[in-house]
Amino acid sequence: MAVQHGQTNLYIDDLPWLEREELCRILNQNNEWEELAGKWMKFDVSTVQCLRKNENPTDKLLKMWTTFNHTVQELFLLLYKMQHHQAMLLLKNFVNPKYSKLITNRKRPSAQLLNCHVADEHSKDLKIGTNNFNHIQPASSDVQKLCIYQTMYERVAKMLDKFPLPNDLDPSNSDNMLVPTGVNQNLAPVPRPVVDGSKNNNQLKISLIDTDLPQPSYEELAKATHNWSKHNILGRGGFGTVFKGIWKGTPVAIKKIEQRGSDSKESYLIQVEQSLRELKILYARRHDNILPLYGHSIGGEAPCLVYQLMPNGSLEDKLSLRQGSQPLNWLQRHNIATGTAGGLQYLHTIGHKPLIHGDIKSANILLDKNFEPKIGDFGLARDGPEQDYMKVSRVQGTRPYLPDEFLRDRNLSTKVDTYSYGIVLLELATGLGAYSNARPEHKFLKAYVDSFEEKDIRLLKDSTAGTEKDKVFDNLIVLGKWCANTLPKDRPQMVDVHRKLERL
User: Fold this and answer.
1) Residue 439 burial by CB count (10 A; 0-12/13-18/19+): exposed, middle or buried?
2) pLDDT tens digits, residue range 26-62?
3) What is the bridge-based pairing of β-strands 304-308 and 355-356?
């Protein structure tokens, strides 16, 4: 992609090679990338330690960050928070010209400008090390009302004489994103967490959503997971940690929403609010191919959601053959494609307005003991328009699975889910990831598949699936390309996709 100086709203991987190389050189000096990675991008300490092993850690850091919809302008603002003017100057021509005023401010802003609170003896320093990760600030003896922090962009806007900032700066706040940001405003509101000043330790008091789901106590769930044993951990995400447990004699997965040391109370509340939204959606939209929710626990030390355990993990794990898992055969892949399409068409048609998932990807398609797919992670779901599309204020989701009209124009419709589903079908057919730096010319799977002529397309077939019923490969490729058409009008409705798969 050719990039002209002065062009703004570029994604990280659109940054010209020379500028990127110089940025890496600058941040590699004195390991300044560590502060960017740990404090501002919010990678955990183990990731930072792995990055240290790379010859060019900044370049590796940018490659990891680039898959999550982040722009050069976002990077510029993080560098501003670091007060790294040299690196900001390098990116000056690729951000909105109004932001150049930030470079002229050579003094580090006061604590009140960058944070709502004044640093005290418990504040962390800027050095990135194990002592600064997973750091829990001791509770103040004086219980204070929770301050809902302004976003970074609003704070910067004040410095720019209240210049109206573009709305498309917000990175995604999906569980799979690295930088938690603002709450999605396009969903019907759910009860917002508040601080109950009558309790110690600033414990969160959350209004419960009215459901008939069981509400086990926090202590009951702690017992189910052997007191949150590290041996019971199934995975970690931006929301917290998922534990395997046995509750009421039933294997379950328990999502524990945690506030981590590098998180502000604002980002923690966002994660809680997303989980409450997910609870509301999963309770109201029950389907064989939607992850079953067994219960929720609100009011203990941490909010928790209890799900059916998916013993075969995610589709992404299976296609990547992680932990020595056996490869999926072609019949299993067909059934996974059909079941996922069934869940999506249900979401799109069951209500007066379609419910758009917003983050369909192989990592969010979970497999039960019979390899039946269940769609999970509804933290970004929102009501869509009855017809055509609607403009949204921010782009959220995982970039390799998002279509151009959403990334560039913020046009949201059910066809965004259709496109994402199409990329999943291409993953099922090829066994390849939606994004890979190992493909120098076509990092995104859709572009890579499109680069093959029709006569050579079977070279992409995932050989690990075997040869029995390998006609499924052709079906997945054809449907995947249909669903992932560049123009939304050329993509099918998920009802038609599901009907087509059931007939194959």
Assistant:
1) middle
2) 999 888 999 998 888 888 787 888 888 888 999 889 9
3) unpaired
Give the residue numbers annotated as catalytic, written as ranges: 359
Q: 294 by DSSP, 3-state: which? A: strand
- Residues flagged as binding site: 256
Statement: 194-308 belongs to CATH 3.30.200.20: yes
CATH (residue range 12-108+144-169): 1.10.533.10
Model's pTM, two decimal places? 0.64
Alpha-carbon distance of 502 to 496, in angstroms, equals 10
Write the single-letter amino acid at 127. Answer: K
User: Which residues make up each annotated binding site for ATP?
Assistant: 256
Look at strands 355-356 and 250-257 and give their pairing.
unpaired
Confidence of residue 64 (pLDDT cuts 50, 70, 90): confident
Instruction: For 213-249, give one letter per residue: b (16+ CB within 10 A) or e.
Output: eeebebebbbebbeebeeebeeeebbbbbbbbbebee
Mind listing the pLDDT tens digit for each residue in 228-262?
A: 999 999 887 667 789 999 999 999 999 998 776 55
Q: Is the pLDDT of residue 161 over 70?
A: no
**CATH ID of 315-503, from 1.10.510.10, 2.30.40.10, 1.20.1630.10, 1.10.760.10:** 1.10.510.10
